[in-house]
Design a protein that fits this description.
Layout (H helix, E strand, L loop, with lengths): L1 E6 L3 H14 L3 E7 L2 H8 L6 E5 L1 E2 L2 E2 H7 L6 E5 L6 H7 L2 E4 L4 H16 L6 H12 L6 E6 L2 E6 L3 E7 L2 E6 L4 E4 L3 H7 L5 E3 L4 E4 L3 E6 L5 E5 L10 E2 L1 H12 L1
Helix pairs in contact: 1-5, 2-3, 4-6
Length: 254
């Protein structure tokens, strides 16, 4: 039997993860679900499991804080909705790294990696994971963006940004006052430089600030349509993609 601890602050996400885990490996047993840094530290300090499935961002801090305080070297599979974290560092120093919503096939692959690792008698070194991720646990986010207005160069604080969008190979910054500027960054670069608590990439074309949301309606069974302030140019539809709808709703609740 494989004993597992799930560290996840969203109850439905924890239940879904447990259900998917049982589907891919019926010899697994989730012995505890922990929803905060505080409860995880308390439990792991006196209990052990074979494997930990852990979200990164919890209500009272980051899961790095747990593993920094409890050095029991239990193997860890990282789960997160935020793909701007250091994927390579996670891949090299944890058993695996899974983006939410958790794909059944990817979880099955991660469990196979754990079993192969276990059969080889390898020891998991949590210090390597912490060392690789320490620079990202207190990451500094971009606070200003340079834009040109004719011959003038202005600096726009990120707090004044309503959203970013891409169109015709250009990336545009739109301020809360409705001014629009071309910037020399693509959405992928922006996603890694913005504070994930304030900005979210809802699809391939838009990264929005939570303060720019005027209204939301169910667009289909799995998607959400958003009215932004100020409105996008050319009456562009702003729709959260299917794969990002669940994490987007979690982001709004954080």
């Amino acid at each position: 039997m494989l004993s597992v601890a799930i560290i996840e602050d969203e109850p439905l996400a924890a239940e879904d993860l447990e259900k998917t885990l049982m589907e891919v490996y019926n010899d697994a047993r989730v012995v505890v679900k922990l929803d905060s840094v505080h409860t995880a530290v308390q439990w792991l300090d006196v209990n052990e499991v074979d494997l930990i499935l852990s979200d990164i961002e919890l209500g009272d801090g980051l899961s790095f804080d747990i593993f920094d305080k409890v050095r029991n070297n239990t193997p860890i599979i990282i789960t997160t909705a935020y793909d701007q974290y250091a994927i390579r560092a996670f891949k090299e120093n944890s058993i695996d790294y899974l983006l939410k919503p958790i794909d059944k096939t990817e979880l099955e692959t991660a469990i196979k990696k754990y079993r192969n690792w276990k059969q080889k008698g390898q020891e998991f070194d949590v210090d390597n994971l912490l060392e690789a991720l320490r620079p990202y646990s207190d990451q500094k986010y971009q606070e200003r963006f340079l834009v040109t207005l004719g011959e003038k160069i202005n600096s726009i604080p990120s707090a004044d940004v309503a959203y970013f969008f891409s169109e015709d190979r250009y990336t545009f910054l739109v301020t809360k006052k409705g001014t629009q500027h071309i910037i020399n960054m693509n959405l992928g670069d922006l996603e890694g430089s913005l504070d994930p608590k304030k900005f979210y990439r809802i699809n391939r074309k838009f990264i929005i600030s939570y303060q720019s949301i005027q209204n939301m309606v169910a667009y289909s069974k799995s998607r959400v349509k958003i009215d932004l302030i100020p409105p996008p140019p050319n009456a562009m539809d702003v729709i959260v993609s299917v794969e990002r709808s669940g994490p987007f709703k979690k982001w709004l609740n954080d």
